[in-house]
Specification:
The complex is a heterodimer. The N and C termini of chain A lie far apart (about 40 Å). Chain A has a single domain, classed as EutN/Ccml (OB fold (Dihydrolipoamide Acetyltransferase, E2P), Beta Barrel). Chain A is mainly beta. Chain A is globular. Chain A contains one helix and eight strands. Chain B is mainly beta. Chain B has a single domain, classed as EutN/Ccml (OB fold (Dihydrolipoamide Acetyltransferase, E2P)), CATH 2.40.50. Chain B has two helices and five strands; from the N terminus they run E-E-E-E-H-E-H. Classes of the chains: A mainly beta, B mainly beta. Chains A and B meet through strand 2, strand 4 and helix 1 of A and strand 4, helix 1 and strand 5 of B. Strand 2 of chain A pairs antiparallel with strand 5 of chain B, so a sheet runs across the interface.
């Protein structure tokens, strides 16, 4: 799975019928310069860090084996601190130890 | 899926049986690399399109037996070159 940041929605009115009326998002993979387009069954906002699956798993993730997607968003990352390249720590994850 | 721009049409008369009579387009990515994509919708040169790769390309072609690894899935309504290159 890839870690991507959502850049915005993509409008393509003239499309093949099998793509249906699913939402397409422009995403930028972490650490690469190029933009990619992903199917969004989750409902993401621009700026969200998300995980996306590729290859044939993307078809299943979009809801059906017959859906022609090669990149599908499967989840929104709750906390991501991009400077450290790790999942960020929740503010309340480590309560201060008692004396 | 990726964002490509259609460069021109491509004609191949002598072709693999499972490519059928599908029309082909030469497309370029943001770095100028050329690829050939199958076009089920009829994109014109200069159009920005969404292209579907790997095994989903065969489904997008309308028949999973069609031998393609890149198929045009839709024509993008609004897109500008600066945003594409950046």
């Amino acid at each position: 799975m890839k870690i991507c940041q959502v850049e915005g929605t993509l409008v393509a009115t003239a499309r093949i019928g099998s793509l249906q009326n699913r939402r397409l998002l422009v995403v930028k993979e972490r650490g690469s310069s190029g933009k990619q387009v992903a199917v969004d069954p989750v409902g993401c906002k621009p700026g969200d860090w998300v995980i996306a699956v590729g290859s044939s798993a993307a078809r299943d993730a979009a809801g059906s084996k017959d859906y022609p997607s090669d990149l599908t968003i499967v989840g929104i990352i709750d906390y991501w601190d991009d400077s450290s390249g790790q999942a960020g720590v929740r503010a309340d994850a480590n309560p201060p130890s008692r004396p | 899926m990726q964002i490509h721009r259609v460069v021109r049409e491509l004609v191949t008369t002598k072709r693999n049986f499972w490519l059928a009579a599908k029309s082909l387009r030469v497309v370029e990515d943001h770095k100028g690399n050329l690829e050939v994509a199958l076009d089920p919708i009829g994109a014109k040169p200069g159009d920005f399109v969404v292209t579907i790769g790997v095994s989903a390309a065969r489904i997008a072609a309308g028949n999973p037996k069609i031998t393609t690894d890149l198929t045009i899935g839709g024509i993008i309504d609004h897109w500008d070159e600066a945003r594409w290159r950046q």
